[in-house]
Amino acid sequence: MAQKIVIDPITRIEGHLKVEVEIEGGKVTNAHASGTMARGLEVLLKGKDPRDATYVTERVCGVCAGSHGWVSSVAVENAQGAKLPQAARVLRNLILGAMWLHDHPLHFYHLSALDYLDVTAVAHYQGKDPKLLAVKDKIVKLVQSGDTSPLLPRYKPDEFSVNDPDLVTLAVSHYIKALEMQAKAKKMSAIFSGKQPHQSSIIAGGVTMLPDITQIEQFRTLLAEQADFVENIYWKDVATFGTGPLLPLARAGIGGGYGHYLTYGGFPLAGKGELFFPAGVIFDNQFGNVQPVDQAKITEAVKYSWYTPACGTKNPVQGDTVFDLNKPEAYSFIKAPRYDGKPMEVGPLARMLVLKPAPFMDIVTKYGIKPGAVARHAARAYETVLLAKAMPGWLDELEGYIKQGKTRIHDTEHWDPPATGAGIGMIEAPRGALGHWVEIANHKIANYQMVVPTTWNHSPRDENGQPGPLEQALIGVPVPDPENPNNIVRVVRSYDPCLACAIHIIQPESNRVLEFRIG
Amino acid sequence: MDFQSRLERKGLNRREFLKAVAAATAALGLPAIYEPRIAEAVEKAAAKPPVIWLEGQDCTGCTESVLASFDPGPAEIVLDLLSVRYHETIMAASGTVAESWLEDNIKQGGYLLVVEGSIPTADDRFLTIGGRPFRQIVQEAAAKAGAIVAVGACACYGGIPAAGPTGAKGVQDVVKNKPVINLPGCPVKPTWVLGTVLQYLVFKKVPQLDSNKRPVAYFGTLLHDNCPRRGHFEQSQFLTDWNDPSQKEYCLLLKGCKGPKTYTDCAQSWWNDGVNFCINASSPCAGCTQPEFYAAGPLDHRAGFAPLYVRTDTMSLPGVGGVSPGTVGKVIAGAAVVGAGVHLIGNAATGRLKQEKEDKQDKPGKKPEKGRHN
Questions:
Q1: Set of chain A residues whose Cβ sits within 8 Å of the Cβ of B95
Q2: What is the predicted ipTM?
Q3: pLDDT tens track for A196-211
Q4: Which of A170, B106, B168, B208 is most buried, taking the most CB atoms under 10 A from its CB?
């Protein structure tokens, strides 16, 4: 007889998520993931000035701040016929790049690490490092004072929890260091963008601000500090854990799922169509066979979502969706996007499997690591290193444009919204493939839609009953103690879910075939 | 047990404690001379104030913003200054462990309740946590809270979601019998949250609020009156093309700036360790600290600030009824002063402004080196 457990709320993620699993023989046999909050941002955009979409959708998420504003401006530029100046393109990459440096370590240390670390092991630290002794002191005194929030309570540690005092104390010291670094990364992004979260520089047609030399140098100094942290602390920690105490989890591929991966490609470079992270599709873990992305193959189903069924399964440009909170079979506000009918994993692992950078692939091969929760952390950390190494070059490129007098940052000629138009923006957010679709009529937004990373990863079942990628990844996950389902939350969090992004309602009325352009 | 021992048991040595107090004093907008008094008040409290932080229809941007704080930094806030009992984004616990922990802490009462995100009122099913309507959770937590702070535009007035179909409302609309301190903004600024929280800890009083229930200390001044581009406004120099270097510092009114209708200290106290703010980035103010931020929804009668990038008729040009710099003084002077803490903050805020204006006159066109705490 299967035992059912419900985890609601899943904490240390963005937004509101409920996961229900059935357990039999100590393993998950069935899983349902539910998004439990809705705001309806697309609906309120209807009838608004198209340029407002950048500002409003920026607020879909305050963690991957900038990503939605970025992709929205690409979609609106596409619809308005605007051409992005090179300096603006580089500035957007730098504003967003800084936020990726913020996002990924934050996910590892502050959202995930507590699933793997037995923090109380710090009390047994016997080393002599004064910094680590200070950490020990801090934690021990929290425990003594009986006020251990927010580190406790928690699920009881299990067989995979790391309890080596040296390792845990070092990791906790990095948890504290990473708190400082994520604030500095936001500061870095704000130098070029006004503020973070919710930067204000990215607008349809470009950016509002060309930094001066002082600001560029200020950014460069902070970037050097971030790069050092990312390479020598974050990546090193992930590699140490992944090939050390967590290797059994990594080799078992706990939380692997279907093996279908999708990435739209991200960070456009100077060459036409050239992307820092290439686009691609992989099916059934066939990593050698990367296929090009065709947006026409994207469909969204709503059979198990709280929306009216009238829409059927359609491409986002044709969908027609309104709330139906009384639908008996529905269990989520998230829709079920599919690519060529298949549930796809998006995010760092998808990007790294498409790009296949040698040092990452070497580790995966050498240690026999299978796609799963640990591999996701490793891919996320490794791509952060790649980005941190590339960004100084982007700063040089920006300085080059300024020196050459190529200081255009905005396509002012195409600033006013056209009478009619339609556009698509498809880029990579830290959590994966992100797409916005906009349609303009009478100079106003007639329809606005988003298909975001967590919609892909945490979607419910589709019209054929196929579970979403997370739901599938949970099948077979060992849960020896249902009171303390550590492995379930490890798998869920390895995707870095963002529910605020995932949930949105759509009210489109269009069968138009749109020009497809990757920004 | 003496205070020093109690402090040490909480993992804070005297030096760290005084550093935190200095940072807290600055965050409160008070001059350093008040540090001993704050230290004394914190010492008397001798326990970190318990905080329950609930997230509703939010984007976690306000949490992210508080975590972007400098002096005190996020580690000091989370581990040294506050006892964060419940915060879904950072707490270790999940599921039933989290739910029962919340229940236990609500039973104890006396905590500071912080709410981020709006509350759906059109139908409870638009947001449930642990199967329960978020509205009900907020009301239960509010009933036993020592003080209630709404952070960000959404928790204060419904924010952008208020324009949508879920009947998104602020805390003050669902908690009727208790005072709510509103700290709007999209997101909230960390200094506003820390200053308000520490003020509650030290003075145990609700600060002086304006008619929108915002602390006068932070929201008593009109952005337009303190805008670094105000001189260009007076000379009718308006930015029309972001590519034109000669317009780089021009007034953003024609690009839709809502500064003339927006009360905030953004111009005096910049964001992210004082490196920048919207207008300095040549981006028009969107009015995110105002109740009319963005747009009215089907359940709301407010006019709203949409469209954002187009000059709206209500934003006057110079000489046609623009708001005078004198407004600032009047707003603060006109506020009835309640309690010593409020009085201090009021004075500090006025002093800050005066200093700011003098600085500006000394160095025309030069931006403040550090936007924060000046």
A1: 6-10, 485
A2: 0.93
A3: 999 999 999 999 999 9
A4: B168
